[in-house]
Design brief:
Blueprint lengths: L7 H7 L6 E4 L3 E5 L9 E5 L11 H21 L4 E6 L14 E6 L18 H14 L1
Antiparallel strand pairs: 1-2, 2-3, 3-5, 4-5
The protein binds adenosine monophosphate (AMP).
């Protein structure tokens, strides 16, 4: 299993630095985020080091994702939250600061002040079709 000795999350996996672990099996670890956006904010990570999405084989991605419903439900019930955001920041431009792919599990309660709506835009006429074709071409490339 590939590990990066300089990666903070690999150090947590190895037990070299502490974390408040909430779930662990052979492939996946979840622990409380040290800077929580809300109480119970947790991170679920593959134990193997994959810096970001493009580095991660689809079957490994699916392996971690398959644990999320159970972990997220437990986190949500533990803190009495009605909902949660499951968030994957992919790349520095998208807010990924730790280059070991991780899912945020962010419990949400009615009336909390976290917010979630981004500034949505619209496509000018024809642009949506162009973008759709570009994505389809990229899938074929
Ligand atoms: P991101 O910006 O998506 O890369 O998120 C990185 C997250 O990792 C942040 O929410 C940090 O608070 C969290 N974090 C960084 N170091 C630790 C640590 N040692 N233990 C727990 N959470 C951490």
């Amino acid at each position: 299993m590939h590990s990066d000795p300089n990666c903070v999350f690999c150090k947590i996996v190895a037990g070299a630095i502490p974390a408040l672990r909430v779930f662990e099996d052979a492939d996946v670890l979840a622990f409380l985020d040290v800077g929580p956006l809300s109480e119970g904010h947790a991170l679920a990570i593959p134990k193997e080091h994959f810096p970001t999405l493009e580095d991660m084989p689809a079957d490994r991605f699916a392996l971690v994702a398959s644990r999320l419903p159970r972990i997220a439900d437990a986190v949500r019930r533990a803190v009495g939250a009605q909902g949660c955001n499951l968030l994957l920041n992919v790349g520095r431009e998208a807010g990924q600061e730790v280059p070991h792919l991780h899912w945020h599990i962010i419990p949400r309660v009615a009336g909390d002040k976290l917010g979630y709506r981004w500034n949505a835009s619209t496509y000018p006429p024809g642009r949506g079709e162009e973008v759709r074709q570009a994505v389809k071409d990229a899938l074929e490339a």
